């Protein structure tokens, strides 16, 4: 199956919910992909074809949907997986990075015992919207001295220009302009 067919299968499996969580918002839900094995395989294939030649030491997934496909990528690359979680969810020594949400602030944490200076990191998540959480994740990884090779998202809301906040390469498979 070619790349365009895989992209169409993936896009068809993503569910859209108008006016959720509030009027005027169209919520793009990745969970439809996980309920469709053909779409899940297409997503895995697209990701692996894209990152095949990247030199990656560690896969980092963002809380919470990055946890769904980060470990799949990790296993395919035969590299470890490390989560970035919201504040207070990880044991051991952690470092923190605050970021701005639409209505307030949040904090990400990363366990420092599993990542070192010079580690080449691939960051994964399901969606890039305003870019605040992805930019925070990049800064968190860089604060240790690790190198972010690329950020991969399945979907990108291009009108929100989130990639402008992220100072490393970002790859999205599906782009929505609304």
UniProtKB/TrEMBL annotation:
GO terms for biological process: adenine salvage; AMP salvage; purine ribonucleoside salvage. It is found in: Cytoplasm. GO terms for cellular component: cytoplasm. GO terms for molecular function: adenine binding; adenine phosphoribosyltransferase activity; AMP binding. Its EC number is 2.4.2.7. CDD domains: PRTases_typeI. Belongs to the purine/pyrimidine phosphoribosyltransferase family. Catalyzes a salvage reaction resulting in the formation of AMP, that is energically less costly than de novo synthesis. Homodimer. This is Adenine phosphoribosyltransferase. It comes from Atta cephalotes (Leafcutter ant). The gene is 105624238.
């Amino acid at each position: 199956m070619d790349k365009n067919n895989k992209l169409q299968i993936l896009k068809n499996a993503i569910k859209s919910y108008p006016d959720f969580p509030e009027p005027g918002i169209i919520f793009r839900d990745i969970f439809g992909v996980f309920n469709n094995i053909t779409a899940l395989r297409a997503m895995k294939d697209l990701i692996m074809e894209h990152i095949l030649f990247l030199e990656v030491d560690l896969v980092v997934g963002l809380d919470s949907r990055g946890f769904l496909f980060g470990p799949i990528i990790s296993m395919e690359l035969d590299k470890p997986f490390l989560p970035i979680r919201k504040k207070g969810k990880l044991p051991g020594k952690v470092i923190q990075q605050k970021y701005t949400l639409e209505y307030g602030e949040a904090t990400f944490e990363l366990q420092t015992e599993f990542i070192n200076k010079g580690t080449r990191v691939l960051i994964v998540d399901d969606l890039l919207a305003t870019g605040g959480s992805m930019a925070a994740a990049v800064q968190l990884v860089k604060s240790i001295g690790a190198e972010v090779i690329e950020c991969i998202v399945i979907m990108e809301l291009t009108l929100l220009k989130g990639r402008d906040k992220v100072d490393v390469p970002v790859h999205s498979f599906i782009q929505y302009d609304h």
